[in-house]
Protein backbone atom coordinates (compact mmCIF):
# COMPACT_ATOMS: atom_id res chain seq x y z
CA UNK A 1 0.00 0.00 0.00
CA UNK A 2 1.31 3.44 -0.92
CA UNK A 3 1.13 5.49 2.26
CA UNK A 4 4.25 7.65 2.28
CA UNK A 5 5.20 10.90 0.56
CA UNK A 6 8.60 12.40 -0.19
CA UNK A 7 9.29 16.14 -0.06
CA UNK A 8 12.32 17.87 -1.57
CA UNK A 9 13.42 21.39 -0.57
CA UNK A 10 16.00 23.05 -2.84
CA UNK A 11 17.66 25.83 -0.92
CA UNK A 12 20.53 28.17 -1.67
CA UNK A 13 23.32 25.84 -0.56
CA UNK A 14 21.78 22.38 -0.46
CA UNK A 15 18.92 20.13 -1.48
CA UNK A 16 17.10 18.39 1.37
CA UNK A 17 14.64 15.52 1.24
CA UNK A 18 12.24 14.09 3.80
CA UNK A 19 10.08 10.97 3.97
CA UNK A 20 6.69 11.52 5.63
CA UNK A 21 3.76 9.44 6.77
CA UNK A 22 0.17 10.36 5.90
CA UNK A 23 -0.09 11.88 9.38
CA UNK A 24 2.86 14.20 8.84
CA UNK A 25 5.50 12.33 10.82
CA UNK A 26 8.97 12.86 9.43
CA UNK A 27 10.59 9.42 9.30
CA UNK A 28 13.94 10.59 7.97
CA UNK A 29 15.60 13.43 6.13
CA UNK A 30 18.89 13.94 4.35
CA UNK A 31 20.69 16.72 2.51
CA UNK A 32 23.28 17.12 -0.21
CA UNK A 33 25.23 20.30 -1.04
CA UNK A 34 24.82 22.19 -4.29
CA UNK A 35 27.42 24.35 -5.97
CA UNK A 36 27.10 28.09 -6.40
CA UNK A 37 29.36 30.33 -8.47
CA UNK A 38 29.79 33.87 -7.15
CA UNK A 39 31.29 36.85 -8.94
CA UNK A 40 31.31 39.83 -6.61
CA UNK A 41 28.22 40.57 -4.56
CA UNK A 42 25.81 40.82 -7.51
CA UNK A 43 26.37 37.64 -9.54
CA UNK A 44 25.30 34.19 -8.30
CA UNK A 45 24.74 31.10 -10.48
CA UNK A 46 23.79 27.44 -10.02
CA UNK A 47 24.17 24.39 -12.25
CA UNK A 48 20.68 22.88 -12.57
CA UNK A 49 22.04 19.41 -13.37
CA UNK A 50 24.03 19.61 -10.14
CA UNK A 51 20.84 20.58 -8.29
CA UNK A 52 18.96 17.60 -9.74
CA UNK A 53 21.77 15.22 -8.75
CA UNK A 54 21.84 16.66 -5.24
CA UNK A 55 18.08 16.21 -4.89
CA UNK A 56 18.32 12.60 -6.07
CA UNK A 57 21.13 11.87 -3.63
CA UNK A 58 19.13 13.40 -0.78
CA UNK A 59 15.98 11.40 -1.65
CA UNK A 60 17.89 8.11 -1.81
CA UNK A 61 19.64 8.82 1.48
CA UNK A 62 16.40 9.76 3.25
CA UNK A 63 14.61 6.68 1.89
CA UNK A 64 17.45 4.45 3.10
CA UNK A 65 17.45 6.02 6.56
CA UNK A 66 13.67 5.64 6.80
CA UNK A 67 13.98 2.03 5.64
CA UNK A 68 11.20 2.85 3.17
CA UNK A 69 10.48 0.92 0.00
CA UNK A 70 9.93 2.76 -3.30
CA UNK A 71 6.56 1.02 -3.70
CA UNK A 72 5.34 2.69 -0.50
CA UNK A 73 5.74 6.24 -1.85
CA UNK A 74 2.52 7.65 -3.28
CA UNK A 75 3.51 11.26 -3.88
CA UNK A 76 6.51 13.52 -4.39
CA UNK A 77 6.68 17.28 -4.01
CA UNK A 78 9.30 19.95 -4.63
CA UNK A 79 9.81 23.40 -3.21
CA UNK A 80 12.66 25.67 -4.21
CA UNK A 81 14.11 29.14 -4.19
CA UNK A 82 12.91 31.44 -6.97
CA UNK A 83 16.01 30.96 -9.12
CA UNK A 84 15.80 31.08 -12.94
CA UNK A 85 16.81 28.00 -14.99
CA UNK A 86 17.64 28.38 -18.70
CA UNK A 87 17.30 25.51 -21.20
CA UNK A 88 17.35 25.26 -25.00
CA UNK A 89 14.64 23.84 -27.25
CA UNK A 90 15.88 20.29 -26.67
CA UNK A 91 15.92 20.76 -22.93
CA UNK A 92 19.70 21.04 -22.63
CA UNK A 93 21.34 23.57 -20.29
CA UNK A 94 22.06 27.07 -21.58
CA UNK A 95 25.05 28.01 -19.42
CA UNK A 96 25.66 31.63 -18.57
CA UNK A 97 29.09 30.47 -17.43
CA UNK A 98 30.91 27.19 -18.10
CA UNK A 99 33.79 26.07 -15.88
CA UNK A 100 35.45 22.83 -14.93
CA UNK A 101 33.05 22.73 -11.97
CA UNK A 102 29.85 22.81 -14.01
CA UNK A 103 27.61 24.48 -16.54
CA UNK A 104 26.00 27.32 -14.63
CA UNK A 105 22.65 27.79 -16.37
CA UNK A 106 20.70 29.11 -13.38
CA UNK A 107 20.53 32.68 -12.08
CA UNK A 108 20.21 32.34 -8.30
CA UNK A 109 17.38 34.17 -6.55
CA UNK A 110 19.81 36.45 -4.69
CA UNK A 111 21.56 37.53 -7.90
CA UNK A 112 21.25 41.31 -8.35
CA UNK A 113 22.61 41.77 -11.86
CA UNK A 114 19.21 43.04 -13.05
CA UNK A 115 18.85 46.09 -10.78
CA UNK A 116 18.75 48.51 -13.71
CA UNK A 117 16.19 46.37 -15.54
CA UNK A 118 13.98 46.29 -12.45
CA UNK A 119 14.18 50.06 -12.14
CA UNK A 120 13.33 50.50 -15.81
CA UNK A 121 10.28 48.27 -15.53
CA UNK A 122 9.13 50.00 -12.35
CA UNK A 123 9.40 53.37 -14.10
CA UNK A 124 6.61 52.32 -16.49
CA UNK A 125 4.09 52.41 -13.64
CA UNK A 126 2.15 49.60 -15.32
CA UNK A 127 -0.99 48.47 -13.41
CA UNK A 128 0.37 44.91 -13.19
CA UNK A 129 2.92 46.28 -10.72
CA UNK A 130 0.06 46.89 -8.27
CA UNK A 131 0.04 43.12 -7.72
CA UNK A 132 3.64 43.05 -6.49
CA UNK A 133 3.65 46.02 -4.14
CA UNK A 134 4.09 48.65 -6.83
CA UNK A 135 7.51 47.50 -7.99
CA UNK A 136 9.40 44.42 -9.12
CA UNK A 137 12.63 43.33 -7.47
CA UNK A 138 15.79 42.23 -9.32
CA UNK A 139 15.22 38.94 -7.50
CA UNK A 140 12.08 38.35 -9.58
CA UNK A 141 12.09 36.77 -13.02
CA UNK A 142 11.00 39.60 -15.35
CA UNK A 143 14.05 41.80 -14.62
CA UNK A 144 16.35 38.78 -14.92
CA UNK A 145 14.82 37.91 -18.30
CA UNK A 146 15.11 41.54 -19.43
CA UNK A 147 18.80 41.43 -18.51
CA UNK A 148 19.22 38.18 -20.44
CA UNK A 149 17.63 39.59 -23.59
CA UNK A 150 19.64 42.82 -23.37
CA UNK A 151 23.04 41.38 -22.50
CA UNK A 152 23.02 37.77 -23.71
CA UNK A 153 21.08 37.86 -26.96
CA UNK A 154 22.80 34.61 -27.97
CA UNK A 155 21.20 32.78 -25.08
CA UNK A 156 17.85 34.48 -25.64
CA UNK A 157 17.77 33.29 -29.25
CA UNK A 158 18.73 29.75 -28.26
CA UNK A 159 16.32 29.53 -25.31
CA UNK A 160 13.43 27.10 -25.48
CA UNK A 161 12.54 26.94 -21.78
CA UNK A 162 12.92 29.27 -18.83
CA UNK A 163 11.84 27.77 -15.53
CA UNK A 164 11.39 28.90 -12.01
CA UNK A 165 13.56 26.39 -10.14
CA UNK A 166 10.60 24.58 -8.55
CA UNK A 167 9.03 24.18 -12.00
CA UNK A 168 12.31 22.91 -13.40
CA UNK A 169 12.35 20.19 -10.76
CA UNK A 170 8.81 19.02 -11.66
CA UNK A 171 9.67 19.18 -15.40
CA UNK A 172 12.75 17.07 -14.77
CA UNK A 173 10.64 14.63 -12.73
CA UNK A 174 7.61 14.29 -15.03
CA UNK A 175 8.50 15.77 -18.42
CA UNK A 176 5.56 18.17 -18.03
CA UNK A 177 6.25 21.83 -18.78
CA UNK A 178 3.19 22.90 -16.77
CA UNK A 179 3.92 25.67 -14.29
CA UNK A 180 2.86 26.18 -10.71
CA UNK A 181 0.53 28.98 -9.73
CA UNK A 182 2.81 29.50 -6.72
CA UNK A 183 5.78 30.43 -8.90
CA UNK A 184 4.02 32.23 -11.76
CA UNK A 185 1.94 34.59 -9.64
CA UNK A 186 4.71 35.50 -7.21
CA UNK A 187 7.75 35.74 -9.48
CA UNK A 188 6.52 36.10 -13.09
CA UNK A 189 3.82 38.81 -12.78
CA UNK A 190 1.18 36.30 -13.83
CA UNK A 191 -2.35 37.38 -12.82
CA UNK A 192 -4.07 34.12 -11.99
CA UNK A 193 -7.31 35.90 -11.09
CA UNK A 194 -7.78 37.15 -14.67
CA UNK A 195 -9.03 35.20 -17.70
CA UNK A 196 -5.64 35.59 -19.34
CA UNK A 197 -2.87 35.61 -16.76
CA UNK A 198 -0.31 37.17 -19.08
CA UNK A 199 -0.78 40.88 -19.85
CA UNK A 200 0.58 41.44 -23.36
CA UNK A 201 1.04 45.18 -22.80
CA UNK A 202 3.07 44.50 -19.66
CA UNK A 203 5.34 42.09 -21.51
CA UNK A 204 5.71 44.74 -24.22
CA UNK A 205 6.63 47.35 -21.60
CA UNK A 206 9.37 44.97 -20.43
CA UNK A 207 10.55 44.43 -24.01
CA UNK A 208 9.61 40.75 -23.69
CA UNK A 209 6.89 40.43 -26.33
CA UNK A 210 8.28 37.03 -27.35
CA UNK A 211 8.67 35.69 -23.82
CA UNK A 212 5.91 33.07 -23.85
CA UNK A 213 7.38 31.37 -26.91
CA UNK A 214 11.02 31.75 -25.89
CA UNK A 215 10.43 30.48 -22.35
CA UNK A 216 7.91 27.77 -23.23
CA UNK A 217 5.37 29.30 -20.87
CA UNK A 218 1.77 27.97 -20.78
CA UNK A 219 -1.35 30.12 -20.66
CA UNK A 220 -2.61 28.41 -17.50
CA UNK A 221 -1.13 27.50 -14.12
CA UNK A 222 -1.52 24.56 -11.73
CA UNK A 223 -2.68 25.15 -8.15
CA UNK A 224 -0.69 23.91 -5.17
CA UNK A 225 -1.73 20.34 -4.32
CA UNK A 226 -2.88 19.38 -7.83
CA UNK A 227 -1.61 16.23 -9.52
CA UNK A 228 0.91 17.26 -12.15
CA UNK A 229 1.85 13.80 -13.43
CA UNK A 230 3.80 10.65 -12.65
CA UNK A 231 7.54 10.16 -12.56
CA UNK A 232 9.18 9.28 -15.85
CA UNK A 233 11.25 6.12 -15.99
CA UNK A 234 14.49 8.08 -15.99
CA UNK A 235 13.44 10.26 -13.07
CA UNK A 236 12.19 7.28 -11.09
CA UNK A 237 15.56 5.60 -11.58
CA UNK A 238 17.44 8.76 -10.60
CA UNK A 239 15.37 9.22 -7.44
CA UNK A 240 15.09 5.57 -6.48
CA UNK A 241 11.27 5.68 -6.67
CA UNK A 242 8.68 4.23 -9.06
CA UNK A 243 6.76 5.53 -12.06
CA UNK A 244 3.53 5.17 -10.07
CA UNK A 245 4.62 8.07 -7.84
CA UNK A 246 2.51 11.21 -8.43
CA UNK A 247 4.24 14.60 -8.48
CA UNK A 248 2.60 17.81 -7.26
CA UNK A 249 3.31 21.27 -8.73
CA UNK A 250 6.32 23.04 -7.24
CA UNK A 251 6.06 25.61 -4.48
CA UNK A 252 8.23 28.60 -3.61
CA UNK A 253 10.20 27.48 -0.57
CA UNK A 254 8.93 30.19 1.77
CA UNK A 255 5.33 29.41 0.88
CA UNK A 256 5.87 25.72 1.56
CA UNK A 257 7.25 26.78 4.93
CA UNK A 258 4.19 28.94 5.52
CA UNK A 259 1.88 25.99 4.89
CA UNK A 260 3.88 23.72 7.19
CA UNK A 261 4.14 26.34 9.92
CA UNK A 262 0.47 27.37 9.84
CA UNK A 263 -0.74 23.77 9.78
CA UNK A 264 -4.21 23.44 11.24
CA UNK A 265 -4.58 27.23 11.45
CA UNK A 266 -4.20 27.58 7.66
CA UNK A 267 -7.97 27.20 7.20
CA UNK A 268 -8.69 30.47 8.99
CA UNK A 269 -5.42 32.29 8.40
CA UNK A 270 -7.05 34.78 6.03
CA UNK A 271 -9.10 36.22 8.91
CA UNK A 272 -7.32 35.31 12.15
CA UNK A 273 -4.04 37.20 11.90
CA UNK A 274 -1.98 34.01 11.91
CA UNK A 275 1.13 34.83 9.88
CA UNK A 276 4.07 32.64 8.93
CA UNK A 277 7.66 33.77 9.48
CA UNK A 278 10.15 31.68 7.52
CA UNK A 279 13.78 32.38 8.27
CA UNK A 280 16.84 31.07 6.48
CA UNK A 281 19.37 32.76 4.22
CA UNK A 282 16.67 35.40 3.86
CA UNK A 283 13.52 35.94 5.93
CA UNK A 284 9.94 36.06 4.75
CA UNK A 285 6.62 36.89 6.41
CA UNK A 286 3.58 35.41 4.66
CA UNK A 287 0.04 36.67 5.22
CA UNK A 288 -3.17 35.43 3.60
CA UNK A 289 -6.35 37.33 2.80
CA UNK A 290 -9.75 36.46 1.25
CA UNK A 291 -9.62 39.74 -0.71
CA UNK A 292 -6.75 41.48 -2.49
CA UNK A 293 -5.19 44.21 -0.33
CA UNK A 294 -2.83 46.49 -2.21
CA UNK A 295 0.15 47.51 -0.12
CA UNK A 296 3.13 49.47 -1.41
CA UNK A 297 6.48 47.67 -1.06
CA UNK A 298 4.97 44.34 0.02
CA UNK A 299 5.20 41.57 -2.57
CA UNK A 300 1.69 40.73 -3.65
CA UNK A 301 -1.20 40.30 -3.41
CA UNK A 302 -0.78 37.05 -5.37
CA UNK A 303 -3.92 35.11 -6.27
CA UNK A 304 -3.76 31.43 -5.33
CA UNK A 305 -0.02 31.39 -4.65
CA UNK A 306 -0.66 28.96 -1.78
CA UNK A 307 -4.38 28.32 -1.31
CA UNK A 308 -6.61 28.54 -4.40
CA UNK A 309 -9.21 30.84 -2.84
CA UNK A 310 -6.89 33.18 -0.93
CA UNK A 311 -4.53 36.01 -1.78
CA UNK A 312 -0.98 35.94 -0.45
CA UNK A 313 1.27 38.85 0.46
CA UNK A 314 4.91 38.62 1.42
CA UNK A 315 7.22 40.95 3.31
CA UNK A 316 10.85 39.93 3.29
CA UNK A 317 14.46 40.59 4.20
CA UNK A 318 17.01 39.73 1.50
CA UNK A 319 19.78 38.90 3.98
CA UNK A 320 18.97 37.34 7.34
CA UNK A 321 20.96 34.19 8.03
CA UNK A 322 23.28 35.47 5.31
CA UNK A 323 23.89 38.60 7.41
CA UNK A 324 24.84 36.57 10.48
CA UNK A 325 27.17 34.47 8.33
CA UNK A 326 28.73 37.68 7.03
CA UNK A 327 29.26 39.05 10.54
CA UNK A 328 31.08 35.86 11.54
CA UNK A 329 33.15 35.79 8.38
CA UNK A 330 34.25 39.44 8.44
CA UNK A 331 35.17 39.75 12.15
CA UNK A 332 38.77 39.23 13.26
CA UNK A 333 37.65 36.69 15.88
CA UNK A 334 35.33 34.88 13.49
CA UNK A 335 36.02 32.54 10.61
CA UNK A 336 34.02 30.16 8.49
CA UNK A 337 30.36 30.43 9.59
CA UNK A 338 29.78 26.71 10.08
CA UNK A 339 27.03 25.58 12.51
CA UNK A 340 29.56 24.85 15.27
CA UNK A 341 30.82 28.45 15.12
CA UNK A 342 27.29 29.85 15.33
CA UNK A 343 26.57 27.58 18.28
CA UNK A 344 29.71 28.68 20.09
CA UNK A 345 28.72 32.33 19.63
CA UNK A 346 25.13 31.71 20.74
CA UNK A 347 26.28 29.92 23.90
CA UNK A 348 28.69 32.72 24.79
CA UNK A 349 26.00 35.36 24.21
CA UNK A 350 23.70 33.47 26.58
CA UNK A 351 26.38 33.71 29.30
CA UNK A 352 27.08 37.39 28.63
CA UNK A 353 23.37 38.22 28.90
CA UNK A 354 22.76 36.54 32.26
CA UNK A 355 23.18 39.68 34.35
CA UNK A 356 21.75 42.26 31.93
CA UNK A 357 19.72 40.44 29.28
CA UNK A 358 18.86 43.51 27.21
CA UNK A 359 22.03 45.60 27.40
CA UNK A 360 24.63 43.46 25.64
CA UNK A 361 26.33 45.47 22.91
CA UNK A 362 24.73 48.72 24.03
CA UNK A 363 25.87 51.46 21.68
CA UNK A 364 26.01 49.18 18.65
CA UNK A 365 23.19 49.92 16.21
CA UNK A 366 22.82 48.14 12.88
CA UNK A 367 20.83 48.52 9.67
CA UNK A 368 20.71 44.95 8.31
CA UNK A 369 20.25 45.87 4.61
CA UNK A 370 23.57 44.42 3.47
CA UNK A 371 21.88 43.03 0.32
CA UNK A 372 19.23 45.67 -0.22
CA UNK A 373 15.85 46.14 1.44
CA UNK A 374 12.91 44.17 0.05
CA UNK A 375 10.34 45.48 2.50
CA UNK A 376 9.12 47.93 3.44
CA UNK A 377 11.50 50.16 1.44
CA UNK A 378 11.63 48.14 -1.81
CA UNK A 379 15.16 49.37 -2.44
CA UNK A 380 17.62 46.79 -3.82
CA UNK A 381 20.37 49.42 -3.70
CA UNK A 382 20.00 49.98 0.06
CA UNK A 383 23.12 49.19 2.05
CA UNK A 384 23.77 48.19 5.63
CA UNK A 385 25.27 50.31 8.38
CA UNK A 386 26.91 49.71 11.75
CA UNK A 387 27.15 52.54 14.27
CA UNK A 388 29.21 52.27 17.45
CA UNK A 389 32.22 50.22 16.35
CA UNK A 390 35.44 50.27 18.39
CA UNK A 391 38.86 48.65 18.00
CA UNK A 392 37.64 45.54 19.86
CA UNK A 393 38.69 42.40 17.96
CA UNK A 394 38.00 39.89 20.76
CA UNK A 395 35.63 36.94 20.58
CA UNK A 396 33.33 38.70 23.04
CA UNK A 397 33.38 41.67 20.67
CA UNK A 398 32.18 39.37 17.90
CA UNK A 399 29.44 38.08 20.20
CA UNK A 400 28.22 41.61 20.93
CA UNK A 401 28.13 42.44 17.22
CA UNK A 402 26.34 39.16 16.43
CA UNK A 403 23.72 39.81 19.12
CA UNK A 404 23.04 43.31 17.85
CA UNK A 405 22.76 41.97 14.30
CA UNK A 406 20.08 39.58 15.57
CA UNK A 407 18.30 42.54 17.21
CA UNK A 408 18.49 44.47 13.93
CA UNK A 409 16.92 41.60 11.98
CA UNK A 410 14.06 41.42 14.48
CA UNK A 411 13.57 45.20 14.26
CA UNK A 412 13.29 44.83 10.48
CA UNK A 413 10.64 42.16 10.98
CA UNK A 414 8.75 44.53 13.29
CA UNK A 415 8.79 47.24 10.62
CA UNK A 416 7.41 44.81 8.02
CA UNK A 417 4.65 43.72 10.41
CA UNK A 418 3.70 47.32 11.15
CA UNK A 419 3.50 47.94 7.40
CA UNK A 420 1.23 44.91 7.00
CA UNK A 421 -1.00 46.00 9.85
CA UNK A 422 -1.27 49.55 8.49
CA UNK A 423 -2.20 48.11 5.09
CA UNK A 424 -5.16 46.20 6.53
CA UNK A 425 -3.78 42.75 7.29
CA UNK A 426 -4.69 41.34 10.71
CA UNK A 427 -1.59 40.48 12.74
CA UNK A 428 -1.89 38.36 15.89
CA UNK A 429 0.51 35.38 15.94
CA UNK A 430 3.75 34.51 14.19
CA UNK A 431 4.21 30.87 13.19
CA UNK A 432 7.95 30.39 12.76
CA UNK A 433 9.67 27.95 10.42
CA UNK A 434 13.00 27.48 8.70
CA UNK A 435 16.52 27.40 10.03
CA UNK A 436 15.97 30.33 12.38
CA UNK A 437 13.92 28.19 14.79
CA UNK A 438 17.24 26.54 15.66
CA UNK A 439 18.65 29.90 16.80
CA UNK A 440 17.20 30.63 20.27
CA UNK A 441 18.35 34.26 20.08
CA UNK A 442 16.24 34.99 17.01
CA UNK A 443 13.22 33.10 18.33
CA UNK A 444 13.31 35.11 21.57
CA UNK A 445 13.76 38.39 19.70
CA UNK A 446 10.96 37.73 17.24
CA UNK A 447 8.58 37.62 20.21
CA UNK A 448 10.11 40.36 22.36
CA UNK A 449 10.79 42.91 19.60
CA UNK A 450 7.44 42.51 17.82
CA UNK A 451 5.38 42.04 20.98
CA UNK A 452 3.64 39.05 19.38
CA UNK A 453 3.39 35.43 20.49
CA UNK A 454 5.49 33.09 18.38
CA UNK A 455 4.46 29.48 17.70
CA UNK A 456 7.30 27.07 17.05
CA UNK A 457 6.07 23.97 15.21
CA UNK A 458 6.95 20.64 16.75
CA UNK A 459 7.69 19.34 13.24
CA UNK A 460 11.42 18.97 12.72
CA UNK A 461 11.22 20.71 9.35
CA UNK A 462 8.14 22.81 8.58
CA UNK A 463 9.31 23.67 5.05
CA UNK A 464 9.57 20.02 4.06
CA UNK A 465 6.30 19.34 5.87
CA UNK A 466 4.47 21.97 3.80
CA UNK A 467 5.75 20.39 0.61
CA UNK A 468 4.74 16.95 1.91
CA UNK A 469 1.22 18.31 2.54
CA UNK A 470 0.97 19.31 -1.12
CA UNK A 471 2.35 15.95 -2.27
CA UNK A 472 -0.11 14.05 -0.07
CA UNK A 473 -2.98 16.05 -1.57
CA UNK A 474 -1.80 15.39 -5.12
CA UNK A 475 -1.50 11.69 -4.38
CA UNK A 476 -5.06 11.51 -3.04
CA UNK A 477 -4.01 10.65 0.52
CA UNK A 478 -5.91 13.74 1.67
CA UNK A 479 -8.91 15.20 -0.22
CA UNK A 480 -7.65 18.79 -0.29
CA UNK A 481 -4.79 21.00 0.84
CA UNK A 482 -6.48 22.37 3.97
CA UNK A 483 -7.37 18.88 5.19
CA UNK A 484 -3.78 17.80 4.61
CA UNK A 485 -2.52 20.84 6.52
CA UNK A 486 -4.77 20.03 9.48
CA UNK A 487 -4.21 16.26 9.52
CA UNK A 488 -0.44 16.46 9.08
CA UNK A 489 0.13 19.29 11.60
CA UNK A 490 2.44 18.11 14.39
CA UNK A 491 1.45 20.74 16.95
CA UNK A 492 3.90 23.16 18.53
CA UNK A 493 4.88 25.30 21.48
CA UNK A 494 3.99 28.92 22.07
CA UNK A 495 6.47 31.58 23.16
CA UNK A 496 5.04 34.81 24.60
CA UNK A 497 6.83 38.16 24.67
CA UNK A 498 8.71 39.21 27.79
CA UNK A 499 7.01 42.42 29.00
CA UNK A 500 10.28 43.60 30.58
CA UNK A 501 11.86 43.75 27.12
CA UNK A 502 9.37 46.13 25.52
CA UNK A 503 10.86 49.47 26.60
CA UNK A 504 14.38 48.43 25.57
CA UNK A 505 13.37 47.34 22.07
CA UNK A 506 11.02 50.31 21.59
CA UNK A 507 14.08 52.51 22.10
CA UNK A 508 16.08 50.36 19.66
CA UNK A 509 13.28 50.65 17.12
CA UNK A 510 13.31 54.44 17.32
CA UNK A 511 17.05 54.38 16.68
CA UNK A 512 16.53 51.92 13.83
CA UNK A 513 14.09 54.28 12.09
CA UNK A 514 16.38 57.25 12.69
CA UNK A 515 19.28 55.38 11.08
CA UNK A 516 17.11 54.79 8.01
CA UNK A 517 16.34 58.51 7.84
CA UNK A 518 20.02 59.40 8.23
CA UNK A 519 20.97 56.95 5.48
CA UNK A 520 18.44 58.58 3.16
CA UNK A 521 19.77 62.04 4.06
CA UNK A 522 23.36 60.99 3.33
CA UNK A 523 22.31 59.52 -0.01
CA UNK A 524 20.55 62.77 -0.92
CA UNK A 525 23.70 64.89 -0.51
CA UNK A 526 25.15 65.77 -3.91
Structure explained in plain terms:
- With 526 residues, the protein is of the alpha+beta class.
- 38% of the residues lie in helices and 21% in strands.
- Strands 1, 2, 3, 6, 12, 13 and 14 form a seven-stranded mixed beta sheet that branches. Strands 17-18-16-15-21-22-23 form a seven-stranded mixed beta sheet, sandwiched between helices. Strands 4-5-10-7-11 form a five-stranded antiparallel beta sheet.
Estimate the helix proportion, in percent: 25-40%
What is the CA-atom radius of gyration, in angstroms? 22 Å
Number of helices: 18
Overall pLDDT metric: 96
Q: Profile the largest sheet.
A: 7 strands, mixed
Characteristics:
526 residues; alpha+beta; 7-stranded mixed sheet; 38% helix; 21% strand
Amino acid sequence: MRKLVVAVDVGTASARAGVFTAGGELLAKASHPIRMRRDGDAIAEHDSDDIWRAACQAVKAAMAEANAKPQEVAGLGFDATCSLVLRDLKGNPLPLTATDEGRFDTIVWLDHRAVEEAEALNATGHPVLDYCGGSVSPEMQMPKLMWLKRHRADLWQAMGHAFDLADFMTWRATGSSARSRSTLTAKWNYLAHEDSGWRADFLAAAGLEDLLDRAGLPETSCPVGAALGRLTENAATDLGLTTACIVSPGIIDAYAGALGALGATARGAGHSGDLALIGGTSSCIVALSPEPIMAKSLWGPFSGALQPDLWLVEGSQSAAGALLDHVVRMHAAGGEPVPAMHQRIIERISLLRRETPFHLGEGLNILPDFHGNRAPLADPRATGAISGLTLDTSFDGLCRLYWRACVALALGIRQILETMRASGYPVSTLHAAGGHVLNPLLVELYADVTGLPVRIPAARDAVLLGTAMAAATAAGIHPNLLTAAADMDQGGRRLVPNPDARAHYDRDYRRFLMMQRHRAELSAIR
